[in-house]
Design goal:
heterotrimer; A mainly alpha (about 290); B alpha/beta (about 250); C mainly alpha (about 280); A: about 290 residues; mainly alpha; MetI-like fold; two-stranded antiparallel sheet; 2 strands; C: about 280 residues; 2 domains; 13 helices; about 75% helix; about 0% strand
């Protein structure tokens, strides 16, 4: 066994060590040790090249920041003096803000629940310790990978084109996003569970579903709920901007206010979002701590 | 009654697990299966409840040809065979009673399984099973807080809870300290005597096997090399089982 | 609960009825949780209604399907600035610079927000600043930065830099808090001064973590960079959204195919490098 490992190690000499042989250092007492060539210079050259290309392609120019940076300060300054009339002072404005805010929350709750529910059976089917059919496992994994590469905003844009503008399109986008991420996290943790209890339950005559549900579910349920809450946290942020492509929620207001350069009102929207995110994140983190 | 008739097992990679095994085990026997690791002890035990499929010969349990069973019929057949594992195979996050209750799951309908709804009767039955192995007071304790011996008893209770006629135990005491191992072995003996359940144990502690079991089956390289009552096991027989390689050289 | 009971009755054995009566009763808790979830769902459903497909919904769905199966190969391999390769290059470039700048900016922030290093009030203030940065969605940052830099890829770079700070800081802080201080003791014993302790005691512990964090964030930033184009901050998103608005589905298909391939490659790269860093 050991010998075999050694043989593999010889075969797997890194390319670099074969190109430039390791330097041999001999101690005064005659013992010697081989010092492989340091990778650092190569990584450094590569990094600098990548940065240089990136700077050229993006037209990186720091002078713009120095010349026009005050503009950002001006906008941020106005954002940080939010228009308080949206919080009770102006009835119509308050209703507009609160409606959009609640729409955002509703989209993320609904989307998280549906997405996470759909993700559970799929993640079980995509775990190679439960599903023995390799073809199905890989098909699902590639599908999930593709779903995860699609940005939420692009999905929302598609949904808005197909289902029309509004919260339904936003919910669809959140469902797809949650589904992709929760299913991936779940199959990864399902694969680490102890299969002993599953084997035992099968040994006394349970079918695959019964064995999975009674032996594996207690093990993965806390993780699953914790992922659901985590995805809810992310979804609130994500849902807030979906309105930009017409999928309902705060994004519509954000788009409007930036268009009108009404940064004080934008500040009010962001403040409302901030409070909600804070509440949901803290509640969720408290619950997740309880679960583990 | 368990009957092996010329049973062979060849694994897909060509390894021969069992070679022409012929055995008859009557109801109520307490059998120890001994042999070196890799000799085929686990394979032999696991063919009985079809955790492993045999590739040749016939295996008949209580008049049923086991290899003909499929799907639902096979699962129903497994209901009367309990199995105990070396690593207990419990849901460690759940309480002892929940683990015992899982052995009822195969008989429940979809929604009861889904929601984990057990009747009071089932719960009482499970508590009785825990009482039989002497850990009733741990019923509502999570298994990861129990000692190894207690966990093995929970798994024994889980098996009793399905009212089996046969119990297969795969190295049940290998992970336990000597004192606990003896306690678990006496549990097995009591169950065997009081309830007339056939017990088949894979074990590598020869002295435990000789002290508790009534019959010994010695396996070497997939073949049964000894089958007889515990009382007639001699040192020569043990040598043959365990140092199989030495015997042929002596014959030369 | 069962435990206390068994202790109380230590002299006479527990009967099955007693054990059954001592079972933990949690059904009301489960019911409560279920009711809360149901109530939240019911409330959420109130303003999400399916109003059927948009007037051209079916045509559009078919168009998207067609486009994905028949991407515009001309666009896919076109090497001009309109083509998919250049657009992807620009997207990645935005993410590279954004992540690097964010990763560097996050270092002082995270040290100042770590209450193991600075006094608690200072840490709290910096944590609040980081939280503030994180709350403003990246799209809003981009829209604000556009007023400074104009609608170009450079805007994407500064946006990504700022947006990365929040999450990177959070992970840096965890890495800093996980530092094993026993090594510092042994360095102390060997007679090292403060700077030497940082160089040989702290940096070797945190640098792999920091690099791993930056690479992880790079993965996210590439995805973000694809959407920033929607507001005009460079990258492939701008071209994609234009094609979507004008229903040129095979062009949409080409851009999407490019994006998916790129994202998968980057995810594989990032997972591999981070696994290597974790192994050391």
């Amino acid at each position: 066994m050991r010998k075999k490992q050694k043989a593999e190690a010889v075969v797997k000499t890194p390319l670099l060590d074969r190109l430039i042989p390791p330097r041999e250092i001999t101690l005064p007492n005659g013992h010697s040790v081989k010092k492989p060539v340091s990778r650092a210079p190569f990584i450094a050259v590569l990094t600098i090249a990548v940065i240089w290309i990136s700077a050229v392609v993006t037209g990186f120019d720091f002078r713009i920041i120095i010349e026009r940076g005050h503009q950002l300060g001006y906008i941020l300054g106005r954002i940080f003096q939010p228009n308080w009339s949206y919080f009770g002072g102006d009835a119509a404005g308050t209703k507009k803000l609160m409606d959009a805010l609640f729409d955002t929350i509703k989209m993320s709750i609904m989307g998280s629940v549906i997405g996470a529910t759909l993700a559970l059976p799929i993640s079980v089917m995509a775990s190679n310790n439960i599903n023995r059919s390799t073809g199905v496992v890989w098909f699902l994994r590639i599908l999930l990978m593709i779903i995860r590469t699609l940005p939420t905003l692009i999905i929302a844009k598609f949904a808005a084109l197909i289902f029309g503008l509004g919260t339904f399109a936003g919910t669809v986008a959140i469902v797809v996003f949650t589904f992709g991420i929760v299913a991936k996290m779940m199959y990864e943790s399902i694969e680490t569970i102890d299969m002993g209890a599953f084997e035992a339950t099968e040994s006394f005559g349970a079918n695959k579903f019964q064995a999975f549900w009674s032996a594996c579910m207690p093990q993965i349920l806390p993780t699953y709920l914790s992922y659901c809450l985590y995805s809810l946290e992310m979804n609130i942020r994500a849902a807030a901007i979906l309105g930009y492509v017409g999928a309902g929620g705060l994004g519509i207001l954000i788009n409007e206010f930036i268009g009108w350069r009404d940064y004080e009102s934008l500040g009010a929207v962001l403040l409302a979002l901030f409070v909600v995110v804070l509440i949901i994140e803290n509640t969720s983190q408290y619950l997740r701590k309880k679960l583990s | 009654m368990i009957e092996f008739k010329h049973v062979d097992k060849v694994y897909p990679n060509g390894v021969k697990g069992l070679k022409d095994v012929n055995l008859t085990i009557d109801q109520g026997e307490f059998v120890a299966i001994i042999g070196l690791s890799g000799a085929g002890k686990s394979t032999l035990i696991r063919t009985i409840n079809r955790m492993i499929d045999v590739t040749g010969g016939q295996l008949i349990v209580d008049g049923t040809d086991v290899m003909t069973l499929k799907g639902k019929a096979m699962r129903r057949y497994r209901r009367k065979i309990g199995m105990i594992f070396q690593s207990y195979n419990l849901v460690t996050r759940s309480t002892a009673i929940k683990n015992v209750l899982t052995s009822m799951v195969p008989d429940m309908n979809f929604f009861r399984v889904l929601l984990g709804l057990f009747t009071k009767e089932q719960k009482m039955h499970a508590l009785e099973a825990l009482d039989k192995v002497g850990i009733l007071d741990k019923a509502y304790t999570r298994c990861d807080q129990l000692s190894g011996g207690q966990q093995q008893r929970v798994s024994l209770a889980r098996t009793l809870n399905q009212n089996p006629t046969i119990i297969l135990a795969d190295e049940p005491v290998a992970a336990l300290d000597p004192v606990t191992a003896k306690q678990v072995m006496s549990d097995f003996r009591r169950i065997n005597e009081e309830m007339n359940i056939t017990v088949l144990i894979n074990i590598h502690h020869v002295d435990l096997a000789l002290n508790y079991c009534t019959r010994v089956i010695g396996i070497r390289a997939g073949e049964v090399v000894y089958d007889g009552p515990t009382t007639s096991v001699t040192q020569e027989i043990l040598d043959e089982i365990y140092n199989g390689a030495a015997i042929p050289t002596a014959e030369k | 609960m069962a435990k206390t009971k068994s202790l109380l009755n230590a002299d006479h054995p527990l009967t099955i009825e007693e054990a059954y009566e001592s079972r933990p009763r949690l059904w009301w808790l489960y019911t409560l949780i279920l009711l809360i979830v149901a109530a939240l769902l019911g409330w959420s459903g109130t303003s999400i209604t399916y109003k059927g497909l948009a007037t051209k919904g079916m045509t559009i769905a078919q168009g998207i399907g067609y486009g994905l199966v028949h991407p515009d190969t001309n666009l896919l391999f076109n090497l001009t600035s309109e083509g998919v390769p250049y657009q992807l290059l620009q997207t990645v470039a935005i993410a590279v610079l954004g992540t690097l700048i964010g990763g560097v900016l996050a270092i002082p922030f995270s040290f100042l927000a770590c209450d193991r290093i600075v006094p608690k009030p200072v840490a709290v203030i910096f944590r609040a600043v980081i939280l503030g940065i994180r709350t403003i969605p990246s799209l809003v940052w981009a829209l604000v930065w556009i007023r400074v830099t104009g609608p170009n890829a450079f805007c994407g770079v500064v946006t990504e830099s700022v947006c990365s700070i929040g999450m990177i800081c959070k992970m840096y802080i965890t890495a800093i808090e996980d530092i094993d201080t026993k090594i510092l003791e042994s360095l102390d014993a060997a007679g090292c001064n403060g700077l030497q302790k940082v160089r040989y005691g702290i940096l070797p512990q945190i640098i792999p973590n920091f690099i791993s964090t930056v690479i992880y964030r790079f993965d996210i930033n590439v995805k973000d960079a694809t959407t920033l184009g929607i507001v005009g901050a460079g990258g492939i998103g701008a071209a994609l959204i234009q094609c979507m608005n004008s229903s040129r589905w095979s062009m949409v298909g080409a851009y999407l195919t490019g994006m998916i391939v790129l994202m998968i490659l980057i995810e594989l790269f990032s997972t591999k490098v981070r696994a290597k860093l974790a192994r050391g």
